[in-house]
Design a protein that fits this description.
Layout: E1 7-10, H1 18-29, E2 34-36, E3 43-47, H2 51-61, E4 70-72, H3 88-97, E5 102-107, H4 114-117, E6 122-126, H5 131-139, E7 144-145, H6 160-167, E8 173-176, E9 187-190, E10 197-200, H7 206-213, E11 217-218, H8 220-223, E12 246-251, H9 254-264, E13 270-274, E14 286-289, H10 296-313, E15 317-321, H11 328-339, E16 344-346
Parallel strand pairs: 1-8, 2-8, 4-6, 5-9, 10-11, 12-15, 12-16, 13-14, 13-15
Antiparallel strand pairs: 2-3, 3-7, 4-7, 5-6, 9-10
Helix pairs in contact: 1-5, 10-11
Bound molecules: threonylcarbamoyladenylate (TXA) and magnesium ion.
């Protein structure tokens, strides 16, 4: 791959500099890549209708070519250009949650090359709410493929500095809009099935979607511990969001969890992911507080940052508390278990 000089430009969401947006748009229209913030995580943008541009995304990320990209739009009118059928349920969800952290899957139109959809006949579409993202999408031609802007297998970037760590020398431009709001990737809903199916949990929860549609299912492949039952979103099958250290999620009553972790955390080579409520329970190890249990949004916001920070510190093992609750807890736990390669420990059964 050709080594590029990667420019990082700060951009103020309250006062978006039009010349920076048009520079980004120019690169995208010429088939180049630009990383930009969205409300969920930073995205690595490319013209979604240009197969060669999409190929550059796979190369920069080191992403398997069967893992499709999400196409980002800025306006409802754009949807008809890429989706062959838009069922009533999709209109209802768009009305409720677009622009925002929701991705919907439709049968694709010809205009979307297979190089963008990983060979699938369907296309994933999201309309982000972040004003910088929306300006970049419009300026880049209206259809921007944007996976999370991390190297495949690393935690998604929630800061421009994370993007720089992974993409330096590989892309010409990173727009730095500061920390993202949500910190976990969008909820994905498949609308090509009779009953819509959630393929990836996120900030828009099962309960919120049920509230709009009445009926929705969770992809069984996400819930199953059976390695032969695959999730439907190709990307969900890979070990992902993975820190370099061996991560285990410890479940059970808070007292047992802390006791279990304390028995193993002798030095600073052992990382601990805890919360404000439990911080005082730990004495040794590299302790990082991810947020507060009274507001799980704070945990979502900082999870990937904490995982990347442990990589920097070079810890060898990480023990994390668990977040198994309904609502946003589902998305947090889904990402945490993927990062842990599904290693979970029941502390109430492991008293030594
Ligand atoms: O919040 C987000 O969605 C972020 C920001 C940048 O918008 N993007 C993101 O993209 O998370 P990525 O590529 O990291 O994750 C896309 C996921 C993958 O798991 C992929 O397999 C799935 O969406 N996906 C994309 N198109 C699909 C399709 N047609 N059918 C099923 N799954 C699809
Ligand atoms: Mg990703």
């Amino acid at each position: 791959m050709i080594i590029l000089h990667t420019k990082v430009i700060k951009i103020d969401r309250e006062q978006i500099d039009a010349s920076v947006i048009s520079e980004a748009g120019q690169i995208l229209k010429e088939g180049g890549l630009v990383a930009f913030p969205t409300e969920t995580v930073y995205g690595l943008g490319a013209n979604a209708l240009d197969e060669e541009a999409a190929a550059k995304v796979y190369a920069a990320k080191g992403r398997p070519s069967d893992n499709p990209l999400i196409v980002h739009i800025a306006d409802m009118e754009s949807l008809a250009g890429i989706a062959r059928q838009v069922p009533e349920a999709a209109h209802k969800l768009a009305e409720a949650f677009w622009p925002g952290p929701l991705t919907m899957i439709f049968p694709k139109k010809e205009a979307v090359p297979c190089g963008t959809t990983g060979g699938l006949a369907t296309v994933a579409v999201r309309m982000p709410s972040d004003e910088i993202a929306r300006a970049v999408i419009r300026s880049g031609g209206g259809y921007i493929a944007a996976p999370s802007a991390n190297t495949s297998g690393r935690p998604s970037p929630t800061l421009a500095a994370h993007v720089k760590e992974d993409m330096d020398g590989k892309i010409p431009l990173i727009l730095d809009g500061g920390p993202v709001q949500i910190g976990l990737e969008s909820t994905i809903v498949d609308l090509t099935e009779e009953i819509p199916v959630i393929l990836r949990p996120g900030y828009i929860t099962l309960e919120m979607i049920k509230g709009v549609l009445g009926e929705v299912k969770m992809d069984q492949g996400l819930l199953s511990e059976d390695p032969l039952v695959h999730p439907k979103a190709p990307g969900m099958k890979y070990r992902h969001y993975a820190p370099r250290a061996d991560l285990k999620v410890v479940e059970g009553p808070a007292k047992d969890v802390a006791a279990y972790i304390n028995r193993r955390a002798a030095d600073r080579k052992t990382g601990i992911i805890c919360t404000e409520e439990t911080r005082h329970c730990y004495a040794c190890g590299m302790i990082k507080c991810v947020g507060t249990r009274t507001d799980e949004r704070s945990v979502a916001e900082h999870l990937y940052e904490v995982l990347r920070a442990f990589d920097e510190e070079g810890v060898e093992a990480i023990y994390s508390e668990s977040f198994d609750s309904p609502g946003l807890g589902q998305a947090i736990m889904n990402r945490l278990l993927k990062a842990a390669g599904h290693q979970r420990i029941d502390a109430s059964k492991e008293k030594s």
